[in-house]
Specification:
Blueprint (H helix, E strand, L loop, with lengths): L6 H14 L3 H8 L3 H21 L11 H7 L6 E9 L6 H7 L7 E8 L5 E4 L3 E2 L4 H8 L11 E2 L7 H4 L3 E2 L12 H24 L16 H19 L1
Parallel strand pairs: 1-5, 5-6
Antiparallel strand pairs: 1-2, 2-3, 2-4
Helix pairs in contact: 1-3, 2-3, 3-9
Amino acid sequence: KATLKTIAQKLIYILLYCKCYPTFDLVSVLFNFDRSCAHDWVHRLLPVLETALRDKQVLPVRQLRDVEEFLERFPDVQEVIIDGTERPVQRPKDSEKQKEQYSGKKRHTRKHITGTTRNKRVIILTKARPGRVHDQRQLDEANIVENIPEQVPIEGDLGFQGLHKEFENIHLPHKKPKGKELSEQQKAENREFSRQRVKCEHAHAGIKRYKAVTSIYRNRVPDFDDLLMLIATGLWNFYLDAA
């Protein structure tokens, strides 16, 4: 007999897990069933939630095949803001895995590259990669920029330095010359550029309302963190549509 009998109970259960990221021990106490049952319900209901969000057309694209797909999926998008976001993971015991996931910020992480619009909607989300992978390398391997139309501006930070030499629609802030200072006009342009790009930070903050993508990752299923990030992003886009 099912321990979660109604659709409402199942929805509350899986949304609680995404929002609070409780341990299976705690969930088993809250819902009065065994720890193993708590584990099974999470892995049974998350794919159902993903399907529901896909039906609502709020999930981001994981990879673009070509420019035509972008125009078909996002005909009204006027610009794309690209940025990286990461979540902490437990420090691996294996030394090679430690090097792979060390982000250079005194912690071990997994990271994504996002593409966001000015209305804070996340339309692109790359697969999770180890924290050591540089943002620009991850962007290049996902083939995102090549499949965005040239008439759509792409705004990035200095972590994507060099892309503006390859693509005409890449816009980056002015970089301070070595041993020199930026002009007052360049500083003003950088401030205005940051004011526009901050929308992607607001989107990341909205996604990270869900503790399942901000707390230290502790699950053992491969790429389960990637699924959690995808669902949290879909829930954020769904919130924007409902607001």
